[in-house]
Amino acid sequence: MNKAVALFGVLLLSGCSPRVMDFTVLSSKPVDFSRASSFVRSAQTARGSNKAQIIVIVPAKVPNARLALDQALASVPGAVALLDGTLTHKWFYVPYIYGESTYIVEGTALIDPAGLAGAPVSDGGCYMVARMDEEGGVKESTRVSREEFEKVRAGLGLPGL
User: Fold this and answer.
1) E strands along 19-126, which residues?
2) Is the Cβ–Cβ distance between 47 and 105 less than 8 Å?
3) 54, 102 in Cβ contact below 8 A?
4) Nearest to 106 by CA among 127, 137, 83
């Protein structure tokens, strides 16, 4: 009898995390692939998730895979798409008590350098200073004026524009 109760308890508290799909390229933004040769593959993995709680038997909301994708893209400055990644749906539920349902998107960020500047090059563009981490990923980025950009560039001993 104790084995049956233990088995029931394990099944009751179990969850599942099936892989919904693998993808080569995934985006929720408009991407101009005519400029794809200028895109840069990020060294860091982008990850986003969207979770919903289930209270008693009523879901507080429905988890949304697109919001998870948007969060992953927002986590890397200039990212326009994710490459070679996965979409996973994780969930668990303790009947009549509590549960969670989560979509998780992971992939390598594809960065559009023009998107980092935020303005077209034809009008002079914007200038940006970025700090990189040890793996070559963008840690933080800040828009600056041309004068500020030139000061940073001179401080690093790089030639001017």
Assistant:
1) 19-26, 40-55, 58-59, 79-94, 98-111
2) yes
3) no
4) 83
Rounded to whole angstroms, how far apart are CA atoms 83 and 36?
Answer: 13
Phi, psi of 88 (to 5 degrees): -120, 145
d(CA 26, CA 154): 39
User: If DSSP codes are grouped into helix, strand and coil, which group holds residue 30?
Assistant: coil
Strand, helix or coil at 33? helix
Using one digit for the tens of pLDDT, what is the confidence trace for 3-13? 655 555 554 55
pTM of the entire structure? 0.63
pLDDT digits (tens, 9 = 90+) for 84-106: 999 999 988 888 888 898 999 99
Positive or negative, the CA dihedral 135, 139, 142, 143 is positive
CA distance 79 to 45: 11
Residue type for position 25: V
CA neighbor of 28 nearest in space, from 15, 11, 46: 46
